[in-house]
Every structure is written in structure tokens, then in C-alpha cells.
Amino acid sequence: MRNFSKDIKLSGECTDGSEVMGFLASEKVDVILLDIMMPNINGIEAGKMVMEKYPEMRILTLSMNNDFDYIQEMLKLGAAGYILKNTGGAELLKAIKTVADGKPYFSPEVTDVVMNKHMNKRDDKSKSTSNNPKLLEQLTKREIEILKLIAQELTNVEIAEKLFISRRTVDTHRRNLLQKLGSKNSIGLIRFAYSNGLIKD
Fold first, then answer.
1. What number is the average pLDDT over the span 78-87?
2. Other CB atoms closer than 10 Å to residue 195's CB: what's the count?
């Protein structure tokens, strides 16, 4: 089977979502390149099953669709990246390597869709959540410290190493931050950090 490059080994290919779990049971892989539009079980459902059984798996979404709802669903289930099918070979390799290194990767078009959606959301709930001193007061010193590092785009592993704590402890703090701040993903945490002056532009 042909490899992507000398640094990346292609372990195999699944023709539909129903084959993914069986494949992972027999093959050890670091990154899954997952198409959303697959027959039988789509990429979103397959991704949920993968993350439930293999929470450390790095999923890189590959799709022709840059609709916000699809992007949001993949982010919610824990996908590490989202790129479009018109992505060139060089960017595809960069995306795979970035995700394999534990960092997120999104096509510029995908980033624009997400940021435009959040920037255009002007309801009162969004305003109060993004800039709310009372919410900030509910955070512990450690949670604020971790929130600042998340806003600097550090991975959980990098945060754990920097603060000399376990990866599991960072995971717990991240979940608590999402719950306390009413955010659905890391983008919401980053927006809160900037809106409340924890990170300067």
C-alpha cells in the first residue's frame, strides 16, 4: 500500500463507517483521516464510536462540506482537525503531521466559517458568556492558569508538562472550564480568555 510520504505510513483504508471499528481493533494507528459523508455509518457517528473507545485517537476530518453544523459536530465529538477535500497535497501532509503531534489543524476556510459564526452571534447569552466578570470570579487560580495556556494554543500534554501535573488533571480542568463557562469547545474558551483580558492581542 502506497504511503503518503517517507514520514507517514498508510495503515489501511475503510470503504464505509461500519468498517472503522473493526479496522482499529486489528491495526494500531496514530491518526484517522475521516470523511463525513460515508455510507451506512457516516463520519460523525463513526467518530463518536472511535472517541468513546479510543479517547486518545487523533481524528482529522476530511470533507467537501464547510457547513458550520458539520464542523461543530466534529469539534464536539473531539476531532483534532478539519480540512476540505480541495486541500493540496502539501497542506494535507502538514495537517496530518500537526494532528499527530497533538496539535489542532483546520483549513483556513474552516477557521473563517467558525470565527464568522461566532463573530456574527449577537444574542444576549453570547455577550454575557464572553465577557462576564462574575463567571471569571468562579474560576480557581489553577483554572485561570490553564485557561490562559489553552488560549495560547498549548495542547493538554504541553500544559501538563509546563505545570508539572498529569494529563488527566488537565483534562479534568478543561472539562470544568467548559462547564463553568458554558462553552462547547476550545474556541469558546479562547474567546472568553480574550474578552476578559486574560490574553492580550
1. 90
2. 15
- Domain extents in the chain: 17-117, 123-195
Residues 50-63: tens digit of each pLDDT:
998 888 899 999 88
DSSP β-bridge partners for residue 32: 59
What CATH homologous superfamily does 17-117 map to? Response regulator (3.40.50.2300)
Q: Which residues contact 100 (CB under 8 A, 6 or more apart)?
A: 30, 31, 58
Phi-psi region of 83 (alpha: psi -120 to 50; beta: other; left: phi over 0): beta
Mind listing the pLDDT tens digit for each residue in 6-27? 778 888 888 887 889 889 989 8
Q: Alpha carbon of 169 to those of 56, 82, 165, 172: distances in Å?
A: 15, 27, 7, 5
DSSP secondary structure string, the chain?
Answer: ---SBTTB------SSGGGHHHHHHH---SEEEEESS-SSS-HHHHHHHHHHH-TT-EEEEEES---HHHHHHHHHHT-SEEEETT--HHHHHHHHHHHHTT--EE-HHHHHHHHHHHHT---HHHHHHHS-HHHHHTS-HHHHHHHHHHHTT--HHHHHHHHT--HHHHHHHHHHHHHHHT-SSHHHHHHHHHHTTSS--
> What CATH code would you report for 123-195?
1.10.10.10
